[in-house]
Amino acid sequence: MILPIVAYGDPVLRKETEEITKEYPNLDAVLENMFETMYEARGIGLAAPQVNIPIRLFIVDATPFEDDEDLSEEEQKFVSTFKRAFINARIVEESGDEWAFNEGCLSIPDVREDVFRKPNIVMEYEDENFKKHKESFSGIVARIIQHEYDHIEGVLFTDKLSPLKKRLIKGKLENISKGKVSIEYRMKFPNAKKKR
Questions:
Q1: In this predicted structure, what is the pLDDT of residue 193?
Q2: Is there a domain that residue 191 lies in?
Q3: Total domains in the fold of the chain
Q4: How confident is the model at residue 196 (pLDDT cuts 50, 70, 90)?
Q5: Were 38 and a residue from 2, 43, 54, 159 both cysteine, which residue would form a disulfide, CB within 3.0 to 4.6 Å?
Q6: Nearest-angstrom CA–CA distance, 153 and 170
Q7: Does 37 reside within a domain?
Q8: DSSP collapsed to 3 states, 157-185
Q9: Binding site: what residues are annotated?
Q10: Residue 148 is a catalytic residue
């Protein structure tokens, strides 16, 4: 089932998310719906708060980057099969020199900006079977994970921009929250005027 993606300005995107256990109801359906929603919106990652579920869960599918010529052959091979669910994730280490990459977000359509992030991360998380993992990621996969991880921490990529950049996109962000944006996927806008 395709879920509406909540737009910039919705309080759920700033909420502290909760850890979940094996007892979480209908987790398989939640994951299935999230993947379906992400693919419908042509995304490469989606966090539960973006579909109005304030839990520590996000999904990543980096396979669209397998033909990216900016990546090394080794990285292309790695991303070609990288599709994963992250539950109760914690980034325990970030390292390396920050690098810029042009990021966008399904909750903030039509806004893309360069964001600086560290290239290497170490993360502890559980998979969809609640098996614990501690793993290192680097490059584009680390970046996608960091972006989605920020969502479960109540942080948006626009928070990482300079004060000047934030001022320049302020009007665009206000329009997004009001639903004044052209999109090809289902969204829920916090400040849209109700139709009478």
A1: 78
A2: no
A3: 1
A4: very low
A5: 43
A6: 22
A7: yes
A8: HHHHCCHHHHHHHHHHHHHHHCCCCCCCC
A9: 105, 147, 151
A10: yes
* pLDDT tens digits for range 134-154: 999 999 999 999 999 999 999
Euclidean distance between CA atoms 1 and 4, whole angstroms: 10
pLDDT at 194 (0 to 100): 63
Binding site for Fe cation, by residue number, is 105, 147, 151
Express each pLDDT in 25-65 by its tens digit.
999 999 999 999 999 999 999 999 999 999 999 999 999 98
* 54 to 15, 72, 87, 94, 95: CA distances (angstroms): 7, 36, 12, 24, 28
Whether residue 156 is contained in a domain is answered as yes
CATH number at residue 164: 3.90.45.10
**Which residue, among 63, 54, 133, has the nearest Cα to 91 in the 3D structure?**
133
Among the listed residues 40, 126, 148, 174, the single catalytic one is 148
3-state secondary structure 10-69: CHHHHCCCECCCCCCCCHHHHHHHHHHHHHHCCCCEEEHHHHCCCECEEEEECHHHHHCC
Residue 165 belongs to a domain: yes
Domain around 157: 5-185
